[in-house]
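Hey, resending since the last one bounced:
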Amino acid sequence: MEEMVKEKVVTDSNLASSLRSGNADVLSTPTVLAWMEETATELAQRFLNEDEITVGAHVTLDHLAPAWTGEKVEIKAKLVDKTGRKFVFKIEVKSGDKLIAKADHVRVAVKKEKFKK
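The structure tokens again:
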């Protein structure tokens, strides 16, 4: 199936200590998750009509190794199944050969109008 790869550089604002999701000066899990969802969202959008978007429905994430300020990471989202409105992804975040995090992620296609106020 399809893949998408994005690169990011860890900044001080991405650290667990900055986001208060922990005390360590390393890439935060919330940031890792946001980058994973961003990549999967962009990949899924290739399959949608203009009036559709996806929303996150489920994630199982393993944060396995640290990344520090200035470190470049690669986020690779692989679409492994698309059934109806449901998209299933395998996602990895790496710095070189070091696996920072991995996730199984599900997104669901919805009409944009349902999410406008």
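The mean pLDDT is 96.

Sorry for the duplicate.
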